[in-house]
Design goal:
single chain, 296 residues, alpha/beta, five-stranded mixed sheet, 47% helix, 22% strand
């Protein structure tokens, strides 16, 4: 029995929880699974799995062996998949996550165009404003529009979006228009509930509006702003049409201009090999975001 096949059987037993479950998963007999595990233990010279009539558990050596070899088995699978992809059309699943509003407004049209070009590729998109652990959630990619603090991720910038302070005409009619930063504390603010509100506004904490509504969703803040519930600081891509239509008005342009724009990036785990389909999607998104930005 070769080493790779023994590893596959070993991890199948761990995943299934029983030898019988692993046998069904692999399409072999219970005795074949048991023999291969025994051969692996004999070769290593230590027991890996404690067996009983009703359950199984890993020994200390088994737990160490499992944790150290899981990544090797996954990397081997990725290499084999990459080789197979290189000889055929692009196919397979790509799992990625994006902030909700950015995903709906900017990312989805590009993903639809990508799937039109590569119909055998399956896109699994998760829209959430929460910060997703890419490794734990087994994500291939993430679109991020926030500061990238995780050094274990590899990032490529897509586009820079300024954030604009704005309010509805109805709000301004009731509360007046702030003409300087020091007037903001007399107003009601709509804040993203992720601990980065002050940075996103580009003003000191002491000059921020009084919190009137907080949410972990930019879309929710956008809706509240349109309803006249307060002043918000939102990405330009989200409010451009509202500003043109007069549903929202820009405030304190000099404050926003002094604050660096938010860079939207595409990131991936640094510890994984890159399947060809994922690499092609990254290049596609970088190119298309650049084209969209140049068209203005």
């Amino acid at each position: 029995m070769d080493t790779v096949s023994e590893l596959s059987v070993f991890h199948a037993v761990i995943d299934a929880g029983t030898f019988s479950g692993a046998a069904r998963q692999l399409g072999v007999t219970h005795s074949a699974v048991s023999k291969r595990i025994s051969r692996l233990e004999q070769r290593l010279g230590v027991p890996l799995i404690l067996r009983s009539t009703r359950q199984m558990s890993l020994t200390a050596a088994g737990e160490t062996f499992a944790s150290e070899t899981r990544g090797l088995l996954e990397r081997l699978s990725q290499v084999e998949q990459g080789i197979a992809e290189g000889r055929s059309e692009l196919r397979g699943r790509i799992r990625l996550t994006s902030p909700t509003a950015l995903g709906k407004q900017r990312l989805m049209p590009l993903l639809l165009a990508f799937m039109e070009r590569y119909p055998a590729v399956e896109i699994d998109l998760t829209l959430t404003d929460a910060m997703v652990d890419l490794v734990h959630e087994r994500m291939d990619l993430a679109i991020r529009s926030a500061t990238l603090d995780d050094s274990s991720l590899i990032a490529r910038p897509l586009v820079a979006h300024p954030r604009l302070i704005c309010a509805s005409p109805a709000y301004l009619a009731r509360h007046g228009r702030p003409l300087a930063e020091d007037e903001l504390p007399r107003h009601v603010g709509l804040f993203l509930h992720q601990g980065r509100g002050a940075v996103m506004w580009g003003v000191k904490d002491s000059r921020l509006p009084q919190p009137g509504f907080l949410s972990n969703s930019l879309e929710t803040l956008h809706a509240a702003c349109l309803q006249g519930r307060g002043i918000a600081c939102l990405p330009a891509y989200m409010v451009d049409e509202d500003l043109q239509a007069g549903r929202l008005e820009r405030l304190l342009d000099d404050v926003v201009a002094s604050e660096p724009a938010t860079t939207v990036s595409i990131v991936r785990p640094a510890t994984t090999l890159l399947p060809r389909r994922v690499r092609v999607l990254i290049d596609f998104l970088v190119e298309r975001f650049a084209e969209t930005e140049s068209q203005g």
